[in-house]
Amino acid sequence: MQKKLWVLMLFTMVLVLAACTDDSDVDEAAEGDSAADSGGRDLVIGMINEAVSLDPHVSNDIPSAQLRTQIFDTLVEQNVDMEFGEGLATSFEQDGDKWTLNLKEDVTFHNGSEFTAADVEATLDRVMDPSVGSSVAFMFEMINDIEIVNDHEIVLTTDYPFTPLPSHLAHNTAGILSKEVIDEDYQNALDEAGSDVTLEEYYELREEGGEEFEAVSQEIGSHVGAVITEKPDGTGHLKLQERIPGNEIVLEKFEEFHGGEREFNTVTYRVIPENSARLAELETGGIGITDNVDTEAMDRVREHNDTDIIDQDGLSMTYVAFNYEKEPFDDENVRKAISHAIDREQIISGVLNDRGIHAKNHISPSVFAHNADMEEVPYDIELAKEYMADSSVPDGFDTVIWTSDSEQNRDIALIIQESLSELGINVEIEQYEHGAFLEMADQGDHDMFMLQWITVTGDPNYGLYPMFHTDSVGSGNRWNYSNPELDGYLEEGQKTSEEGEREAAYATAQEILMEDLPITPLYYGELGIGVNNTLVEGVELDPVGIVRIENVTFPE
């Protein structure tokens, strides 16, 4: 049966960030080309973690997504209610395994080139290219053919009718790059590797596959992405001006943007890891927005005359991951013992200041097909001890848990450490810088680690398939977990378009996961950002945790 989905609405999303400058900034700006000269203003945003990469195909972290959302447009847009709207594609038509996309005209890339179907093809080919080694290739690998009908019409063919495709095309890692910068990046990689293969020959080899392509791919892999990292070329309302690693990234307004006028000239994302320092900057006007407020400081921000908290129900699930193939975590009794020994209520009340929801399963209540009939994982130390007694290590063992270097993560890890000591499990906590931590987690060499997964599309396919399907081992499935029965239900959820059938498939999948526990869910996130109301008005936060700035305004 033919199914049509027309995306004809253009959203005006009131997603706002702002900041101010100190007197020295104002004096300096007055001397030359300034925000004031062109009627614009400068925004400064405080971030707890630095963006890993501006290349949409390199990482899948929220700090990077904050910036990439501004630089790149996607084919489909989602508003703060996760509703679809017009992006670079004005409409879709699905007919079985084929999707026809009509593309927006008169759109310009930051480098001045015109947006066409060739840029969509080049972007999708790149994200699935083994040379890139993208951690989000799974989101697009069901696309097996890309046919350019004309400059503004393209047909995507999938391996099977794939219901969640629009939500994947709305993801920040689906931001469209210009073919020009993609070509330049590959040519640079070939040159740096000293390859005698031409760019055209490389594309031909990639299309054919085989041993010759694999050899070239391995040869250039470490060089791919260097150009795009330095000059990410999108069609978004902001373009890269400057990056000072470890300190800040400055984006500037793109004057040829196709989506309307902006009130700002530059947006600076400052890395301020310390919660107290970031809060002080918010209160004194050094920043207009902080992307993270320590839960203990929430009341202080609300009660301050100039600042407030913007709340949002999140799509995240924070968890402890086990190495499913590594002793003793290959023993389900160990995994269940640990799961029942962790006091989630203590974490939520003691660390999160009651800003979290006790997790029942592996996707949050804000995600479609969340299985609300399941019970919460109870804190039961006696039951945990019974599981340990039946395990391969009844007397306990020594282990390590990794986490990124935030104060909140440290405090949660300390609670876990104390809880597991009652089972004879001696836990060493190792904290790492955010980017380094993600890189280590991808290697699959851990004992345990603590991380958060955000079902950014709002669709359970994204929440479960990349984390738990056998084909995702080595990418999102960092714990080396495989269960053929689960795979079947996840595949069924992808292929059927009937809502009830999808809900049933995903409900069963969640039950299987809570039995196997390759990871144990801790809590669902409740989001909150800090805003200085004297500097910015109308700020909104989406359920993913992205603060968008399309329509920022400033108080007079």
UniProtKB/TrEMBL annotation:
Residues 86-472 form the Solute-binding protein family domain. One of its GO terms (cellular component) is ATP-binding cassette (ABC) transporter complex. Residues 1-18 form the signal peptide. The keyword Transmembrane does not apply. GO terms for molecular function: peptide transmembrane transporter activity. One of its GO terms (biological process) is peptide transport. The keyword Ribosomal protein does not apply. Keywords: Signal, Transport. It holds the Pfam family SBP_bac_5. Belongs to the bacterial solute-binding protein 5 family. This is Peptide/nickel transport system substrate-binding protein. It comes from Jeotgalicoccus coquinae.
